[in-house]
Write a structure and sequence with these properties.
By secondary structure, this protein is α+β, with helices and mostly antiparallel strands. Helices cover 49% and strands 19% of the residues. Helix 6 packs antiparallel against helix 7, helix 10 runs antiparallel to helix 11 and helix 17 packs parallel to helix 18. It is rod-shaped.
Length: 695
């Protein structure tokens, strides 16, 4: 009985029960196994994904529960196993385990590819490098025979293949809305095709052109941060399967997102670089414009202070030659009146001053520039043929010339000359020469206009001065006439000699007037200042005035410090006082009155007062009393007397003031008694009288 019991207990369980137990044991082992750590899983994934060429891969290890035999007796263990369904369960479990490991390995490869692409987005600025990496990973992960990345050309609205992987083909241009990629670009949605030739959207002529046979395809759009489609990522021909799966589609969408980010970043970087270059160009342009404006400002200042044509040309070249990195400057100017040509050359390395020489030629570099209308750059070959005006210390190999435009005819031309060893001139230099030539033309015209105006003003002033001289001729002529009449009735030789001496003095006065006109015409103004005894000076003055008031009701009173001395020009101050006394006599008219001369000398000044007892100065001319040609309707008056007085006082550096009332008028002259200053000359005024005959 006991043996029977042992025999019964040693029997194996039924096949159905054995199968159920194997399944349950496998499930328990799988559920009880702890998940591997992340690092271990990644290492396992890497090991699983790493190809092993030395030996075939081992099958996955099965759970230990499945490897242990069920509990049985010792006798039963020696029996051969009974055939059951357990091997079927074990094969299914192995397949599930292998699929799980394959999915994990693929997931690891995807994660690694995305990390590599993400890492490449940072340091790399080359869009082609990033896109090639994306395309290579796309082919690897999706196991496709070919991958193509299209970018949308915003200018033409076409898709253009930027990167092609899996074979060298020529560039492809595809219209949006045509073909698989074109429809994806138009709709913005992925397309997965199992059989390309069975799909009406597929354009087979691309296979004919490229020699490639398309079986299946998967395409997804590339969208930027704003959601706009910027391209298409497409893969062709799944290697191990007949079509691309949904997982492939999800993976391609993820990769296309990375590619879109790369494109977006690249375009942003490119835009930033373009903006930066534009800012640099703008900055350089502004700096150049500021330099040009600064040069034009300095040039304007220099030419404004220049008083002659050579000074203008030299000022121009001192600024223009360094600005154009040239070695010398040359200018050809036509004279205003004669039309003769003058050549100016400035070469700072040899001489810091401008050289000038006359020329009759209108040929050569500057001569031809006069006939042109625009600036131009000349090379060495042209300069060898044209440069004939100047002899320089070097051989010019490059030059910029520009005409100087006048109102009716060219004023001339300017040029800057250099050698090829220096930085060659550009369009900016040509534009600068154009601006400077216009400035020089204006400066020359203004200088010539100023010279003409000065000449005209001088002629006008000479005419006014001659009028004053003619006006003042009355005084010496009156004195000469009076003494000549006295000489007729005088038999005393000594007295006649005295009268002749007085007449000769008046001729000296006339001569000094003539000399004054000539000096002014030459641009000279000279005072003959010397120390004068007031007693002697006023005695001679009253003697001359006595001849003018003879036969009138006018009386002359003199209040002078006869021992005093002062420094002034006798002739001119005498003319001024003659004019004041004559005005007083004419103001009192036939009624008569008294003219008082008073003079006080101090170490600091000489004060002279001329007072009359006439009706005073008319109010209508009182404010314009010392202007030329101002008169109060006086018969025979020229309106120059008081203007001459004011001019003589100003030449002495003095002042004159006037007081007027119904009881008369008073003119007060104050002359400073300072040492002789520039523009004055001390000493005796030269005389033109012939030497006195010896007795």
């Amino acid at each position: 009985m006991a043996g029977m019991t042992r025999a019964k207990s040693s029997r194996p369980p039924p096949p159905k029960l054995q199968k159920e137990r194997a399944v349950e044991a496998g499930a328990r082992a799988k559920s009880s196994r702890p998940p591997p750590a992340r690092g271990e899983r990644l290492k396992s994934d890497e090991r699983a994904s790493r190809p092993n060429t030395s030996r075939p891969p081992l099958p996955p290890r099965l759970p230990r529960d499945l490897l242990r035999e069920p509990a049985a007796s010792t006798a039963a263990s020696s029996r051969p196993p009974v055939a059951t369904d357990a091997p079927t369960a074990t094969t299914s479990e192995e397949r599930d385990s292998r699929l799980s490991l394959s999915a994990d390995a693929r997931e690891a490869r995807v994660a690694r590819a995305l990390r590599e692409i993400g890492a490449a987005l940072g340091p790399s600025e080359d869009l082609d490098d990033i896109l090639e990496l994306v395309l290579a990973k796309t082919q690897e992960l999706l196991e496709s025979e070919r991958a193509t990345l299209y970018l949308l050309d915003e200018g033409t609205g076409e898709l253009v293949s930027r990167i092609v992987g899996g074979g060298q083909v020529r560039s492809i241009r595809m219209r949006v809305g045509y073909g698989i990629a074109g429809i994806v670009a138009q709709t913005g949605k992925p397309i997965r095709v199992r059989d390309a030739y069975a799909d009406p959207r597929f354009e087979a002529h691309w296979d004919v052109l490229t020699g490639f046979r398309t079986r299946n395809t998967l395409a997804t759009p590339l969208k930027n941060h704003s959601g706009s489609t910027v391209g298409v990522l497409q893969v062709l021909n799944k290697r191990r399967l007949d079509e691309f799966t949904e997982d492939d589609e999800a993976l391609l969408v993820a990769l296309s997102t990375q590619a879109a980010v790369a494109i977006d970043n690249s375009r942003l970087v490119l835009r930033l670089k373009e903006n930066y270059r534009a800012l640099l160009d703008t900055q350089q342009t502004l700096e150049r414009r500021v330099r040009d404006l600064q040069l034009m400002y300095e040039l304007e200042r220099s030419t404004a202070h220049a008083t002659s044509l050579p000074a203008i040309i030299e000022a121009v070249f001192r600024h223009l030659v360094p600005a154009c990195r040239a070695r010398a400057g040359a200018a050809l100017i036509a004279e205003e009146e004669s039309g003769d040509l003058a050549l100016f050359v400035w070469e700072p390395d040899v001489e810091q001053t401008l050289t000038r020489r006359a020329t009759k030629s209108r040929v050569g570099l500057l001569g031809s520039a006069m006939q042109s209308s625009e600036p131009r750059i000349l090379g060495a070959a042209e300069l060898q043929l044209e440069l004939s005006e100047a002899v320089l210390s070097f051989t010019p190999e490059i030059a910029i010339s520009a005409p100087l435009d006048g109102e009716s005819s060219p004023l001339g031309a300017i040029a800057v000359l250099g050698q090829s060893g220096h930085e060659p001139p550009g369009e900016d230099d040509v534009e600068l020469v154009r601006l400077v030539s216009a400035n020089v033309s204006t400066a020359i015209r203004l200088q010539r206009a100023a010279t003409a105006r000065e000449r005209s003003e001088r002629l006008t002033t000479i005419g006014s001065l001659l009028s004053q001289v003619v006006h003042d001729f009355k005084t010496p002529m009156t004195v000469i006439s009076g003494y000549a009449q006295l000489m007729v009735d005088i038999d005393d030789r000594t007295q006649r000699s005295d009268y002749a001496e007085e007449i000769l003095k008046q001729f000296d006065v006339i001569t000094s007037m003539q000399r004054e006109v000539l000096e002014f015409a030459r641009g000279q103004r000279t005072l003959f200042v010397r120390r004068v005894y007031l007693g002697k000076f006023f005695d001679e003055l009253t003697s001359q005035i006595g001849l003018e008031i003879a036969g009138t009701l006018v009386m002359l009173e003199l209040d002078v410090d006869r021992k005093g001395m002062a420094r002034f020009d006798e002739s001119r101050l005498s003319r001024a006082l003659h004019n004041l006394v004559r005005n007083a006599i004419e103001a009192m008219g036939s009624v008569g009155g008294t003219v008082t001369l008073r003079a006080v000398s101090t170490p600091a000044s000489l004060v002279i007062e001329v007072r009359d007892t006439g009706p005073g100065i008319p109010p209508q001319v009182e404010g314009r009393l010392f202007q030329s040609f101002v008169t109060a309707n006086k018969q025979g008056g020229t309106g120059l007397g008081l203007a001459i007085v004011k001019k003589i006082v100003d030449e002495h550096g003095g002042s004159i003031r006037v007081e007027s009332s119904s009881k008369g008028a008073s003119f007060t002259i104050e002359l400073p008694q300072a040492p002789v200053v520039q523009g004055t000359r001390a000493g005796k005024r030269p005389s033109n009288r012939p030497p006195a005959p010896r007795s």
